[in-house]
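agent> Task received from the user: take the single chain below, predict its 3D structure, and emit C-alpha cells. No templates, no multimer pairing.
agent> Plan: (1) validate residues, (2) run structure prediction, (3) serialize to C-alpha cells, (4) report one or two observations.
agent> Step 1 OK, no nonstandard residues flagged.
tool_call: predict_structure(input=
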Amino acid sequence: MQSYHSSTHKVVVPCPYCPETLTQVRSWKRHILKVHYSRIVQQHAENDITVIADNTDHSTVAEADVNLNVHVVNDENDSSNDENYSISNNRSPIPEYTNDLSHGSIQIFHKTEERLRLNVLRLLINLKSNNATEACIDNAFSKKKQRHVLRIHKAQYIPFKESLINLLKKPEVYESLNCPSRANIMTDLSTGSFCDQHPVFKLPDSLKIILFYDDIGINNPLGTRTKSVGMFYWTLANLPRFVRSQDRCVFLLACIEKQHLKQYGFTIVLDDFFRTIEELQTHGIPVTINEKIHIFKGSLLLICGDILGLSQMHGFKCAFRLGRKPFFYCDVNQDTIRRINKGSECHLRKLEKYDKNCMAIDFANEREKARLQKKYGIISLSPFRKINNFDIFHQTGIDIMHVLLEGICQRELKLLLKHIQQQKFANLSSLTSMIRNFQYGCNEPSPSDKFNLSSEDNEVKFRASASEMLSLFKYMPFIFHQSHLTELISASVGWHSFLLLREIISISLASEIDITTIEKLEELVTRYLITFDNAYGYVQRIPKHHLLVHFGEQMHQFGPLRFTSCMIFEKKHSFFKRIKYRNFRNIAFTLADRHQHYIASLMYTCSNAATSSFLYSGHQIKKVKELDSSAAKQHYLLDMEKNLYETNQVTLFGITYVVGEAVLINDSVFPIDPVFGKILTIIVQDKIILLRLQLMQVIVFNQKLCVYEVRLLDSSVTKNVYELKHVWPVRLLKISKSLFTSLFPYGRSYLTSNE
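)
tool_result: status=success, residues=755
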C-alpha cells in the first residue's frame, strides 16, 4: 500500500479555482497553496460559505502504478456521501469554471484534500463491472505423472452482452450513438459506402461493433520468460470519432495465453461473442435508459489487427514471403504480386469460392488436404463465418500503421539513406546527427538519443517505432533542407519516391476526406509504385507494398483510413504493459481482473451511482493567467461579468493547441487558397476557447520539399476553436530566414509529377 501514500502520482486533475490542470498530486497541492491561498483563507474566515462538491466530472484518468493498478479517476456525484459537510448558501458563490464536456456546475471544495480522499475511495469500492469469467478449456496431461491432472487451461472472457448493456445504459452514450456528418465530407466509418448498402448498418441507430486482436508480451516476475498473451478488444463505431480514440472507450473482450490459443483455436474463446452478435441481429438487446426501454440491433462491422494476427484468426497460411498466395485478401500468386500497381489489376477472394475451397479441404484425406491447403493458402474455415452476412474479406480492415509505419516506411527510408551514402552526399554519422539534433515538436514523439544509423551487409539499419517513423517522415524534408541536402538529392528519383510515400501517409491519416481524396490517393499509389521500381527495382518491394493498391477501395467503403487503423487499440496495450508486478501464474486472469477494476472505477462512483462523464473527462488547460475583465471587449462571445483567463496550451479531444503553432482558418476543409494563422494566445472563459491569431500569407508551395513557404502579416484575428474546419494544428519552422509549414496529415496533395 506504499504507493497509495505517494505524492508523486501522475494524474490529470483541474484546479477548483481556475482552468489550469496539473499532472501530479504534489503539483496540485503546491498550486492551490501558492496561487489560491488567499481564497482558502477567505473561505475559512466566512463560516456561511457553502461547501458542496457536486458533479465534479472533469478529472481524467491517472496513469499511476498503484498496487491494484487502478488509476486515480473522476470525482463525481459524491455530494450524497458528504451531506454532513454541507450547508446551504444564500450568498453569491465564487465564480465557477468548467472545462468538461457537459460543462456541468462545479463549485469549490472546502478541504483541498477532499478530492484526493474520494479518489482513493473509488479505487477500493464498487467493483460492479468486474465480471470477468474463466472459461475452462481442457485438462492438461502431466508427462511426469503420466496421467491427466487437474491443471486447467483457462481463458479470461468478459461477457460481451453485459458489457455492452453497461455501456449503453449511460445516457451520454445513448445521446452520442448517431453523430451527423458534414455533407459531401467523409469523417468516420459510417460515412462510407459499406454502411449505406448494408441491410443492418444503413439504419442510423444500429450498433456498429469493431473487434481487434493482437498479441502482447508480458513479463512474469516468477520467471524470466516473456509470455505472449492474445488480447481481444472491442469498441463501438457509433461513438464520436475523437472520443473513441481514448483507451476508456476500448473494452477488453477476452485474453488468453498464446500457446493455449494455438492449441484450442479462436472459436472456443469467442463462442459467447458470436451468440451475442446473433441476438443483436435477430431480436435485439433491450436496455433501460432513463426508465424507458430501448431495443438495440446491430452487428460486427469491422475486424482490425495486424496482417499476421488476422491471417491466423481467419485460418489462412501465414507465409507472406514464400507462400503461394501471400495475403488472404487477394487471390494472386507470389510471382505476380510485385507487378501490380493498381487495385483494378488485383483479383480479390470471393466468399462463394472460399466456401467451396474450405469444403474441399474438409472432405479431403490427409495427403490431399495438405496439397489443397498449400494451393489455396487456407488451413481451416474462419470462425467468423458463423456471423450472418459477415464478409471476412470486405469487413477485415487493412491497418495503415502496420503496413506503412512499420513496413513500407522503414524500407523506403533505409533505401534513401543508402542512396545518399553511396552518392557521398553525407555519411551515416552525419545523417544520425541531423536526425537526432533536429528540434521536433514538444508534443510529438521523436527519435531517442540512442537512435543510430549503421551499415550491415550493404544495408542501412536503424530501429524506430511507428510513432517515431511518422515524425521522421513528417520532418525529413525540413531536416534535409536545414542541412543543405535538398539541393543535392532533389533531382533524384529516390527523393521523389520518398515524397510520394509521404503524401500517401498524409492522406491515409487524414480525418476528413471526400471523393477527390480517394481518387488522388489511388493516383499517388500508382505513381509511387512505378517511381519506386524506377529508383530501386521492383525486387526491393516487400509484400506490404501490394496492400497499398487496396487503400482506395477501403477508404471508399469505410471512410478515413485513420479510423480503421489499430493505433487506438495499440494504445490500449500500454495499460496492460504498465502492469509490471504481481502478475501471477495465471497472467490472463491478472490482466482481465485489473482492467475490469479500472473500467468499474470510471463507470461508477463510490456510492454506486453512474458517472456522467465516462466518454470524455474534460479539456486539459495548462499554465493559466487571469486577465482583466476589460479584455472581454475583444470578442462578442466573452462576458465582462465572468472571469477571463489566458493560457499557452489547451488540449481538446486529444488535440493540443500551443502558442507558436498555426491553424488553417479557411471556412472549408479543402480550400483552394489556404490561409494560416499563428497562435499568439489562447483565451478561456467557461465553455468558450478563443485563439488569437496572427495572419500569414502563403508565398509558394515548395515542390522540392512538399511544404508551404509563408510569411507573417501585421493583421490579426480571433477564431473560436470550435469553428475550425481543419482541426489539426500545424507547426511553423524557420530555416535560413524562411518560414515553412506543412499540412500533415491532410486529405489533399499538391505534389506534381516530376516528369
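agent> Step 4: summary for the user.
The chain has five domains: 2-124, 133-177+188-314+382-398+566-599, 318-333+343-381, 400-563, 621-741.
agent> Done.
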